[in-house]
Specification:
Chain lengths: ~280, ~325
């Protein structure tokens, strides 16, 4: 049997409130991440099946199967590599992108609209910005975990010749975040789902996956379509991953642009999502 | 088992104090200059029709909605500045249950407790205590979606108590529940009240307000129409008894004209005539002496509903 005391003065309450408030202002986002990760356990089996099934299927189908039709190495000079080595970093980034688009959209709409748990969290000492931070932390953890598994399969398939290949785990994660956080900001502003998310997936994400230098180099496309790659976070992530995975040659300044672009989009996405979320919760 | 030790508050300083509180959405004032104080351990109600501004007021007290004008202080702190600090001392039961349906019943309590910085080792036994308090021990591992409406409500209340809140905010706590579920809930809330928790609730159920509130304000169109204990409001705005007479829908209007001078006040409704008086039987005798024979008659005690309808009108509010 436990005992709690409810008698108090405002000064006593204030002292406790100030101490706890300071802690939650500091740590709140991590508690949201803990909650979100716990929520993900509800579909743990799907997560594991996806994490293992996706690399096996895609690496085999494209890197091994389709590769039998592609005799020539991809790229020029020292950068020329077998198709498997060329396509594997792109598949890793695409997988991260797919997971990010799922985790940064429907759970956000769920929390605001379908099962408005974000309002309950906000009733505790957690701000709208911290809710967004928490989702961001949780999805980042999932993306890193999933990318590690994917990377192990890439090694098993012999798709990673470079020493710095393991860094593609991070580039894939950031690629997912760069698009995901922008989608999160948009989803946080959605009042109703009238199929916008499905539309974005079908006519935004899938074309992006096809035309971002993933399955074939961007310069094989007509010049007037190259802009798709330049604005596509996936193209920047894929190119960066290729630099790290097998030493794909490109100007150092372009590598810097890849990193800056991906990080900038991630930051912009988070900042806007935080603002939208705070405004939506403060009715 | 959860046992809260009732204590006299060490101070009579209000835990919640509002002065000329205003909340505007563009040009519409949902709350239009209300003032009130709530003492520690008090059970305080906002009674009003839909759209009166009750929930908006509750969100401002809950430090999640920024006020447009006026002063508001919760445990001596300004919610515009100290939102998280204030919320750390509150328990909130929203109008609609927003439990996490991805988690099981007990996990909802464990996860929510973490938002108050509570350790996992503390939260395990605490969650079990609260499940017992909410009569949900058997459902600890159930899915939230499998609970009845009353069970979900009790779980939401249990969740709101995870941090031993100093103030419990309840927005229409029993709306949509069947009578059994309402009575169980009232019992639980009454226990909390006995234990000294400050209860602030909104309702449009008069019996609920009478059961639970030491003091209440009747709110309509964002302003306070009346304030007092349920008994004092009845005394002030109604009579001790009400005589309800039915002469048939077609005859009520004509009969009402002949009843002038009977009771303190007469209200004519389409289906019946209400005579407000301190002694209903006495007035019924006077009606009969006039040679009027109602189809049915009923003498009842005046209720908060009479006060409510007098202050907020009888037209449908949607």
């Amino acid at each position: 049997m436990s005992t709690a005391t409810v008698g108090y003065t405002n000064d006593e309450a204030k002292a406790k409130a100030m101490a706890l408030g300071a802690k939650m202002r500091r740590m709140g986002g991590w508690y949201v991440a803990e909650h979100r990760l716990r929520g993900m356990l509800a579909y743990l089996q799907t997560m594991i099946a996806t994490s293992i099934g996706t690399p096996v299927l895609y690496l085999y189908a494209l890197g091994v199967g389709l590769a039998t039709l592609i005799d020539a190495n991809i790229g020029e000079g020292a950068s020329a590599v077998p198709y498997l080595v060329f396509v594997a970093p792109a598949l890793l980034c695409s997988a991260a992108l797919t997971t990010a688009t799922e985790e940064f959209t429907y759970p956000i709409l769920l929390g605001f609209k379908w099962n408005p748990i974000f309002f309950a969290i906000n009733s505790a000492p957690i701000s709208g910005g911290q809710i967004i931070n928490g989702v961001f932390y949780a999805v980042t953890i999932r993306l890193i975990g999933q990318s590690i598994v994917y990377y192990l399969f890439m090694i098993a398939f012999g798709a990673i010749p470079g020493l710095w290949g393991w860094l593609t785990i991070l580039t894939a994660t950031v690629t997912g975040m760069a698009i995901g956080t922008i989608l999160m900001a948009y989803t946080a502003s959605m009042k109703e789902d009238r199929g916008q998310l499905a539309y974005i997936m079908r006519f935004g994400i899938i074309p992006l996956t096809l035309f971002s230098g993933t399955f074939f180099p961007l310069d094989t496309l007509p010049a007037f379509l190259h802009w798709i790659g330049w604005i596509s976070p996936l193209w920047h992530g894929v190119e960066l991953s290729r630099v790290l995975a097998y030493g794909y040659e490109e100007p150092g300044s372009l590598t810097a642009v890849h990193i800056a672009y991906l990080l900038a989009l991630t930051i912009i996405g988070v900042v806007i999502a935080r603002r939208v979320s705070a405004r939506r919760l403060n009715k | 088992m959860l046992t809260l030790v009732p204590q006299q508050s060490a101070s009579n300083e209000p835990v919640i104090s509002a002065r000329n509180l205003v909340k505007k959405y563009k040009d519409f004032a949902a709350v239009d200059g209300i003032s009130f104080d709530i003492a520690p351990g008090e059970s305080f109600g906002f009674l009003g029709p839909n759209g009166a501004g009750k929930s908006t007021t509750m969100r401002m007290i809950g430090a999640v909605s920024t006020r447009t004008e006026g002063d508001l202080s919760i445990i001596g702190l300004d919610p515009n500045v100290y939102g998280p600090e204030i919320r750390s001392q509150l328990g909130v039961v929203p109008q609609s249950d927003n439990l996490d349906t991805e988690l099981r019943v007990r996990d909802n309590l464990l996860v929510y407790g973490r938002y108050f910085g509570l350790s996992r080792s503390y939260l395990g036994p605490k969650a079990d205590e609260l499940l017992e308090f909410a009569q949900l021990t058997e459902k600890a591992k159930a899915r939230v979606d499998d609970l009845s409406g009353g069970m979900k409500r009790r779980l939401t209340i249990a969740r709101a108590l995870i941090n031993n809140p100093r103030i419990l905010l309840l927005d229409e706590p029993t709306t949509g529940l069947d009578p059994q579920a309402r009575h169980i809930l009232w019992d639980r809330l009454f226990r909390l009240k006995e234990q000294g928790t400050t209860l602030v609730l909104t309702t449009h159920y008069m019996d609920e307000a009478e059961q639970l509130c030491d003091r209440l304000v009747v709110v309509d169109k964002g302003t306070i129409m009346a304030e007092g204990s349920p008994a004092s409001l009845i005394r002030q705005y109604s009579t001790r008894e009400v005589l309800e007479l039915r002469f048939g829908s077609e005859n009520n209007a004509a009969v009402a004209k002949r009843l002038k001078g009977i009771g303190d006040r007469i209200e004519e409704l389409p289906d019946r005539i209400l005579v407000y008086a301190d002694n209903g039987e006495h007035e019924l005798a006077r009606v009969t002496e006039l040679g009027l024979n109602p189809v049915t008659s009923l003498v009842r005690r005046s209720s908060l509903e009479d006060v409510f309808l007098r202050l907020t009108g009888r037209s449908l509010i949607e």
